[in-house]
């Protein structure tokens, strides 16, 4: 297997921001994710996706399924269209469409509606968001030199995550000003339109075709293109060992993370008590989110340098070993301090793996099929978490205290490590060069 080796010279954020196309792409992402964060936090009062309000593990699993599976159902459409249509247009149209459904959702909240109407409009907003996220990821190689994709990914992903948190904080502030009732919640939710429309406007400033795809390897019939989208993505993934191996590692991490997440939710709700300044309950979940956000931020800062020093292969292996150790050493005590530390370490390491896999897709997969690979990646990513949460819900005790399940989660990280090493040893298949890039000898894994 070949691994992407990054130059020793780091550009830094100032150098990237000096590239007009990158700056515009980053601004598109930041505006969109600010709107996402505000939209989701604005709906918190309606308790659309708050597992804390669910009574048992099965109901929590159902809540995650409602939240994540629509992403997976939309994934094939995302990939096929991103590799068929001008990605600039897809991003613009997706954001404008989302803005319309944000307004519908806000009206439903303001009118006091609940249940199916609210779920449908909210899930459309989030589902169409996959077009924006996948489109921005697939477009990045068109604005940044390949040798700096790891660093560029780290900057965009970290900045996007921070902006989503800022959007959520803005929602809290707006609710304070506008009121916490249905009317105030509706107005707060509607403000997310500003971020989505701003994102669409910024993306519209790109010239047609500049974000790709450069070539279209799609049937003329759109229905046929959508139907075969996942199959083409799977073929391109299999023919690219760096992507296949990385995806296996990432899916194992996501499944283990799903198990840990279910256990953490139950511990926070039924078992743990406040520990000094650390809080249990919904406050504890917020602290877990902050710890995870800090992990994402640190990964964004360090990943490029870690890959530069050790190479992609050693970086991914080290990250998986670190998560397994954190799962056992910090997870098993099942105390508030240890849970927060475990969240930080596990999400930090998982983000490192994700950044490496994102870069492998962007560098090693041909542009004409890259959107479909990202769509497959996105679909499997969410299915892995929902499946893990659902299986855990069937066997976990109500109080969440299950050392055996935590050990199973730790073993999944090691399974992911084994799968990564096994799949990375495969030779790259180049029988269909239209689906993967030829190795030019400038990049090596190892």
TrEMBL record:
<dbReference type="Pfam" id="PF07690">
    <property type="entry name" value="MFS_1"/>
</dbReference>
<dbReference type="InterPro" id="IPR036259">
    <property type="entry name" value="MFS_trans_sf"/>
</dbReference>
<feature type="transmembrane region" description="Helical">
    <location>
        <begin position="186"/>
        <end position="203"/>
    </location>
</feature>
<feature type="transmembrane region" description="Helical">
    <location>
        <begin position="245"/>
        <end position="268"/>
    </location>
</feature>
<dbReference type="InterPro" id="IPR020846">
    <property type="entry name" value="MFS_dom"/>
</dbReference>
<protein>
    <submittedName>
        <fullName>MFS transporter</fullName>
    </submittedName>
</protein>
<feature type="transmembrane region" description="Helical">
    <location>
        <begin position="373"/>
        <end position="398"/>
    </location>
</feature>
<feature type="transmembrane region" description="Helical">
    <location>
        <begin position="280"/>
        <end position="303"/>
    </location>
</feature>
<keyword id="KW-1003">Cell membrane</keyword>
<keyword id="KW-0812">Transmembrane</keyword>
<feature type="domain" description="Major facilitator superfamily (MFS) profile">
    <location>
        <begin position="1"/>
        <end position="428"/>
    </location>
</feature>
<feature type="transmembrane region" description="Helical">
    <location>
        <begin position="404"/>
        <end position="423"/>
    </location>
</feature>
<feature type="transmembrane region" description="Helical">
    <location>
        <begin position="90"/>
        <end position="113"/>
    </location>
</feature>
<feature type="transmembrane region" description="Helical">
    <location>
        <begin position="339"/>
        <end position="361"/>
    </location>
</feature>
<keyword id="KW-1133">Transmembrane helix</keyword>
<keyword id="KW-0472">Membrane</keyword>
<dbReference type="InterPro" id="IPR011701">
    <property type="entry name" value="MFS"/>
</dbReference>
<feature type="transmembrane region" description="Helical">
    <location>
        <begin position="152"/>
        <end position="174"/>
    </location>
</feature>
<feature type="transmembrane region" description="Helical">
    <location>
        <begin position="58"/>
        <end position="78"/>
    </location>
</feature>
């Amino acid at each position: 297997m070949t691994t992407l080796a990054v130059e020793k010279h780091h550009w830094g954020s100032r150098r990237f921001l000096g590239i007009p196309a990158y700056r515009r792409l980053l601004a598109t992402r930041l505006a969109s994710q600010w709107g996402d964060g505000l939209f989701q936090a604005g709906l918190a009062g309606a308790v659309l996706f708050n597992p804390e309000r669910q009574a048992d593990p099965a109901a929590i699993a159902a809540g995650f399924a409602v939240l994540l599976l629509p992403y997976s159902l939309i994934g094939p459409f995302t990939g096929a269209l991103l590799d068929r249509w001008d990605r600039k247009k897809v991003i613009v149209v997706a954001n404008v469409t989302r803005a319309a459904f944000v307004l519908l959702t806000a009206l439903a909240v303001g009118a006091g509606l609940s249940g199916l109407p609210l779920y449908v409009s909210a899930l459309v907003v989030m589902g169409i968001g996959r077009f924006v996220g996948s489109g921005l990821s697939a477009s990045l190689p068109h604005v940044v030199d390949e040798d700096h994709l790891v660093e560029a990914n780290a900057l965009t992903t970290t900045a996007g995550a921070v902006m989503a948190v800022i959007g959520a904080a803005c929602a809290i502030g707006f609710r304070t000003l506008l009121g916490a009732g249905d009317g105030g919640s509706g107005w707060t939710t509607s403000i997310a339109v500003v971020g989505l429309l701003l994102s669409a406007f910024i993306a519209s400033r790109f010239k047609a075709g500049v974000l790709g795809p450069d070539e279209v390897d799609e049937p003329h019939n759109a229905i046929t293109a959508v139907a075969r989208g996942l199959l083409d993505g799977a073929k391109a993934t299999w023919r690219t060992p760096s992507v296949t191996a990385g995806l296996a590692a990432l899916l194992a991490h996501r499944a283990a993370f799903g198990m840990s997440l279910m256990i953490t939710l139950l511990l926070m709700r039924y078992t743990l008590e406040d520990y000094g300044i650390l809080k249990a309950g919904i406050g504890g979940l917020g602290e877990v989110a902050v710890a995870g956000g800090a992990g994402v931020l640190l990964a964004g800062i360090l990943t490029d340098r870690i890959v530069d020093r050790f190479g992609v292969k050693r970086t991914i292996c080290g990250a998986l070993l670190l998560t397994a150790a954190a799962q056992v050493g910090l997870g098993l005590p099942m105390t508030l301090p240890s849970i927060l530390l475990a969240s930080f370490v596990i999400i930090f390491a998982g983000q490192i793996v994700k950044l490496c896999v994102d870069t492998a897709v962007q560098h090693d997969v041909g542009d004409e099929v890259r959107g479909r690979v990202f769509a497959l990646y996105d679909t499997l990513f969410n299915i892995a978490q929902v499946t893990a949460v659902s299986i855990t819900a069937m066997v976990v005790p109500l109080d969440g205290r299950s050392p055996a399940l935590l050990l199973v989660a730790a073993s999944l990280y090691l399974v992911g490590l084994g799968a990564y090493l096994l799949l990375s040893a495969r030779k790259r298949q180049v029988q269909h060069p239209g689906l993967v890039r030829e190795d030019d000898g400038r990049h090596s894994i190892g």
